[in-house]
Amino acid sequence: MSQYRSRPYNSRRYARGPCGTRLSDDSDRDTMKAPILTLLALAGVCTLVQAQQASAGDAARGAGKAALCIGCHGIVGYRASFPEVYRVPMISGQSAAYIGQALVAYQKGDRKHPSMRAVAGSLTEQDIADLSTYYEQHGRGGAAVPDQPAALPDALKDRMAACTACHGVNFSKPIDANTPRLAGQHADYLHAALRSYVTDGRAVLGRSNAVMRSQLVQDDNGRPKPTFTPAELKQVAAYIAALPGEVKTVPQPGRR
User: Fold this and answer.
1) Which residue of 18, 25, 131, 171 is surrounded by the most CB atoms within 10 Å?
2) Domain range spanning residue 76?
């Protein structure tokens, strides 16, 4: 009988690691796992940092990307001609978060204006961040906006309470950056925007926003009922437009 007895193969004991190194037991394999897990964690952190950097807007870069915008938003009183005629909104001094949110809504089709959909569709996430930051800082300054504006129209003040709850009493200090400053905005644009939230089934008109829709259309025994009549919507728009505001159109070089 041989003095040497064959030893059974132990797969756990003789497991091989990278480059053919032999792992003697489970503790060695755990040791091998630690650096790998660390590298994976670091990779996740780097990805997060890169995403944050990509979404951080730069006003200087935005100024160089605004050529698509200034043809309309850089001309005082410029009017859109399709699908409706109204003065395009003043966006200098508007919240960057709101501008970015609006551009993404055009990209997704939640806002249907054809020209804006075409422009927004050509922008990257970084473009949107840069342009939004640029226009928020563009043309800042001027007289302070009063905290207490003119009284709301008596016939509408109860129904407009929901408006001030989000956009602020003076319509210039909204509850968060995603909510637009409206005070001083063009009345015809405001009226068109309000109507767009209650417009259905039109390929080039309408905006999808559940919050705005709920404020402008009430449920009446299972049937939609407008909160405001067409004449009252115009009155709401005229009131907000008459308030002192921070949004403006800053004429661009080469534009009138």
Assistant:
1) 131
2) 56-241
